[in-house]
Amino acid sequence: MLCGGAQGTAGGSVGRGGMFCGVGGLIGLSAKLPLGWDLAESPVSTMTRPLQRVLGAAGLLRWRTYSCHGACVSPRQPVHGEAKRNGRPEGLGARLAAGPTLRDFLRDAGPAHGAFHHPAEAEEDPAPYLGTSTLAEGNRKVYLETYGCQMNVSDTEIAWSILQRSGYLRTRRLEDADVILLVTCSIREKAEQTVWKRLRHLTALKSKRLPSQAPLRIGVLGCMAERLKEEILHRERLVDIVAGPDAYRDLPRLLAVAESGQQAANILLSLDETYADILPVHGGVSAISAFVSIQRGCDNMCSYCIVPFTRGRERSRPVASILREVQMLSDQGVREVTLLGQNVNSYRDTSEAQFSSAAPPTCLSSGFSTVYKAKRGGLRFAHLLERVSEIDPEMRIRFTSPHPKDFPDEVLRLIRERPNICRQLHLPVQSGSTRVLEAMRRGYTREVYLELVHHVRDSIPGVSLSSDFIAGFCGETEEDHQQTVSLLREVRYSAGFLFAYSMRQKTRAFHRLEDDVPAEVKQQRLAELIAVFREEAAQVNAAALGSTQLVLVEGPSKRSDSELCGRSDGNIKVIFPNVEIEDGTNPGTRVRAQLGDYVSVKIISANSQTLKGVPLGRTTLRESASAC
């Protein structure tokens, strides 16, 4: 495919079949044109219109209009091998004379034996400007750096799996890298500033590159890439490639284009990309926990949130693909899996026709509402959660990040009945003020949220709760803030994620509301929320004194090799001495707990973040559940 704007580009390809672009709108053409032809360059565009109509009538030409917010490469110099005269590219007339005729486009394209085969279905030739050595390079080392949420950790594993298939090697040493890729976050301004600062540091490494070495390539992936798009390429020219969350399959091609000295980008969002056929390359051999992405994107459109604009619409990965990955992780010895999604509990698998009538319309938690119509059909989160929990009874199952509206009783019942589904829920509230919640378009009131909290605690005794809070949202008054403080005291969370509001472009708040709370007031309110949260969390954890907690060992404590660290079922960090203990799995023997072991620990001290205890013995998840 060939396309151009005011300045045509006859180089660099991204996406399947190649797609060229200039700085204007992009036009996709499925018929093959000679390298160097620019349909948008006047007067060629006018002269080729009859040809366009003929090919279109024959069904051999498909026009699609793109924006440079899609897949593109930056303008370049004439391609090697282009005809030149007096050091300049030949004129339009010479190029037209040597160019293709209608016969060239129609050759071998007619129907065969009465059946029409679209040219796109034929096997693609490699892009002519990407040599075999470029596409099959096997000794390039890539360094991946992750910022932000658990979804970005999962995206990093997907990106690495794709690059590994293309012959790249991974290095953990920045100095050894030929390619450096940053998987970025865009949820707050501070997150982006951290990445810009890092990019300037990395760019300095380029100038220190030895002439004998291949040029260092730097790429920005993920949400920041999707939000800022070409601005990243143009700003101080720090970056060689940009890829949005739905463009990781295109990384090998983007890097191949970058090797020719051009910048390249693909920031197209997809309505169906879930990377279901990509098995992520998870952590090292010693990893005992893993993230499994089950759902991407979000349809909630909260007024403060950039996620729908950086990760697109909600779509769910097929159940079979998820079960296959979880089984693989179990076979590798992973003991804890966290199911991930921007709105994980609105999961809905519609990948098979028979799933369309497999469930009634979405049933929201009592009192909650959405900005979209009820979704029909599909296998729901409760079905997936049940199937995942059956794979390995000794594997803990968690999930994040849910929305409070999507907690049907079926999910709560499963958590209560299945010992390997952790009794820990994330219930992001954002604010304790009904007025602010309405401005945020959260779809519930303070009272409705508190009713859900009480229902969850009645349904799952001993459940541990965590939440998200935003301080200083648009129009928030001191009274609104104090309502959030009082909600913190009433619910008493075990963990919390609290931040000052950061307005993001494209969001509803950016277009409709005023960021009118001064920065210093935001910070004061945030500090008060953090102080109250820690005070309440300390009391919640103090209630565990004298209890026995089942702890999954994660390794040595950061402060001392004489202590081990792990997490309880409620996701609270627990520290205990690394000493010999009774082996409940082999009575009469004593062992030292190892990575991935379950250990019963009696709690003897607590603060707002950590429990400390003494180990009672090694056990299993099933034995621990039967003893309760």
Percent helix among the residues? Answer: 25-40%
Q: How many individual β-strands? A: 28
User: Widest sheet: strand order?
Assistant: 3-11-10-9-8-6-7
Number of helices: 20
Largest sheet: 7 strands, mixed
Q: Give the DSSP E fraction (strand runs of 2 or more residues).
A: 15-25%
Rg computed from alpha carbons, rounded to a whole number of angstroms: 28 Å
Query: Structural class, please?
Result: alpha/beta
Cofactor: [4Fe-4S] cluster
EC number: 2.8.4.3
Keywords: 4Fe-4S, Iron, Iron-sulfur, Metal-binding, S-adenosyl-L-methionine
Protein name: Mitochondrial tRNA methylthiotransferase CDK5RAP1
Structural write-up:
The termini are far apart. Strand 22 (548-556) and strand 23 (563-567) form a beta hairpin. The longest helix has 24 residues, at 519-542. The protein has 628 residues and is an alpha/beta fold. Helix 12 (319-331) packs parallel to helix 13.
